[in-house]
Design goal:
The structure is a single chain. This protein is an alpha/beta fold and about 210 residues long. The protein is about 40% helix and about 10% strand. The protein has one domain: 3-Layer(aba) Sandwich (Uracil-DNA Glycosylase, subunit E). The protein has ten helices and five strands, in the order αβαααβαβααββααα. The protein has a five-stranded mixed β-sheet. Bound molecules: iron/sulfur cluster.
């Protein structure tokens, strides 16, 4: 079976997952994009389920605006990058407002999907978006100490680079004021120069992936 077929089968299994009874859902996950770039969001918001794809609402608009400065549009990005998340279901609203942060057991339950994706794709670059995703891979620290750098990580036995980005939520002020403005620009520059990123911009990528 080809890698594309394995991923397609995997995505079908993820979409049928009902492991977490406390999640609102539905399951939202990536297209089966064969890629050396593995993006990791936190969890879908209340609107993503309608569209059936991650980052399909306002935060996504900001995220894809950032990526457009690196020469890649939304449709190309979605077809060339595997867009994972710490949890693949909308967790519901928190009592104090905002989206509920997934519980530890929910993160643990969903990490089985992440493990399989990393084993299949063997990414050269992981791009975690927002604190929950960043702390899935790196020790907790102020965002200013983590963003704007390339980290080396080993996850599920696979070693690769990791370039974190802040969450593009409109409710976040971190990336709108210094040092967030400058650190975001630094992180985007690092992304644009990374060999795995250069690969997703390769015009012959689809042809090569069809052969895998
Ligand atoms: S959060 Fe993940 S493990 Fe839990 S039900 Fe959704 S897809 Fe399954």
């Amino acid at each position: 079976m080809s890698l594309r077929n394995d991923l397609t089968h995997h995505v079908t299994e993820v979409l049928a997952c009902r492991k977490c009874t406390g999640m609102i859902g539905p399951v939202v996950t990536s297209r089966p994009s064969v890629s050396k770039v593995y993006l990791v969001g936190q969890a879908p918001g209340p609107h993503e389920g309608k569209f059936g794809q991650p980052f399909a609402w306002t935060a996504g608009k900001t995220l894809f605006k950032w990526f457009s400065t690196l020469g890649i549009d939304e449709e190309t990005f979605r077809s060339r990058v595997f867009m994972a998340a710490v949890c693949r279901c909308f967790p519901g609203k928190a009592p104090g407002g905002g989206d509920r942060v997934p519980a530890r057991d929910e993160v643990e339950a969903c990490s089985g999907w992440m493990r399989r994706e990393i084993e299949l794709l063997k990414p050269g670059l992981i791009v975690p978006i927002g604190r929950l995703a960043i702390e899935r891979f790196l020790e907790p620290a102020p965002l200013a100490d983590l963003i704007g750098k390339t980290h080396r990580t080993s996850t599920f036995g696979h070693a690769c680079d990791l370039i974190p980005l802040p969450h593009p939520s409109g409710a976040s002020t971190w990336y709108k004021v210094e040092p967030g403005i400058s650190l975001l620009q630094k992180a985007l520059k690092l992304l644009g120069r990374h060999p795995a990123w250069a690969e997703i911009r390769n015009p012959n990528l689809e042809i090569r992936n069809k052969l895998q």
